[in-house]
Specification:
This protein is of the alpha+beta class. The chain folds into two domains: about 170 residues, STM4215-like (2-Layer Sandwich); about 45 residues, no CATH class. It has six helices and eleven strands. The strands form two sheets. Strands 1, 2, 3, 4, 5, 6 and 7 form a seven-stranded mixed beta sheet that branches. A four-stranded antiparallel beta sheet has the order 8-9-10-11, with no helix packed on it. α2 links the parallel β1 and β2. The longest helix has 17 residues.
């Protein structure tokens, strides 16, 4: 069965719920390398990226699997996102909560790697591309971290030896093609909010009545929600500090 009638074509520039954050992470590293290799000093070295002219460019930088015919014509740097793992920071990944509404904010730190697959016909050329990509990521680490909205970009890169890119482009038509891979570790912090209040907070109505030395709101589900000790009772109730006594 053909998938054309059932699956919508993938648009890498789409911004919607279907566009997961991993796509944006790939864009960060792709745009960074494109901006670096677009510098005029790379012209004539076989490493100059010219994004507005795909026929004259000396290098192609992308996040997609290159076609074998294109790889035999022009060297590529393909940015491939590695495995990711949730760190489970703190209890329930909780960052903060608003007691008056029950809204919660959660966060977690996700480590991952970005692999620069530097591929071409000549091994020396691939190694030079790998070195320049790794050096630029290391030298401009702070700019990449700040502009990309990342938590941290590691400087302990690994650069692989020359090898055939068979696992990335399928069966090779020529034994001249080779690949050098740079592994860049980085950390990305994600955050999400639960904005809908808990049902117990929706039904609770808080009214303060001064009785002796303690101000108590009505009970929620048969137990006191809060007790408010009064150090000094006066006309200004903004001096009252709420302390939690029971869980809602």
């Amino acid at each position: 069965m053909s998938s054309e009638g059932t699956i919508r074509n993938f648009d890498p520039l789409e911004r919607s719920l279907a566009c997961d954050p991993t796509t944006q992470l790939q864009r960060v590293f792709v745009y960074f390398l494109q901006a670096y290799f677009e510098h005029p000093e790379f012209k004539g070295s076989g490493m100059h990226f010219q994004g507005n002219d795909h026929e004259e460019t000396e290098l192609i930088i992308t996040s997609e699997k290159p076609r074998l015919s294109a790889l035999e014509k022009t060297p590529h740097i393909s940015c491939i996102l590695g495995s990711m793992q949730w760190s489970q920071l703190g209890h329930d990944q909780m960052q903060n909560t608003v007691l008056s509404t029950g809204a919660r904010t959660h966060t977690d730190l996700i480590p991952s790697t970005m692999a620069y697959h530097c591929q071409g016909k000549e091994g020396t050329h691939c190694r030079r591309l790998a070195w320049q990509a790794s050096w630029a990521t290391n030298a401009f680490c702070r700019i990449l971290t700040r502009s990309g909205g990342l938590h941290r970009v590691g400087r302990n890169h690994s650069i692989s030896p020359e090898s055939g890119p068979t696992a990335f482009v399928g069966q090779l038509a020529s034994e001249e093609l080779c690949s050098v891979v740079v592994q860049v570790p980085f950390f990305w912090q994600t955050q999400w909010r639960i904005r809908r209040p808990a049902p117990s907070f929706e039904r609770a109505e808080f009214t303060l009545n001064v009785r002796g030395h303690v101000v108590k709101p009505p009970n929620v589900r048969g137990r006191p929600a809060y007790s408010v000790p009064l150090k000094e009772y006066g006309e200004r109730l903004n001096t009252v500090r709420l302390t939690q006594k029971g869980q809602v």
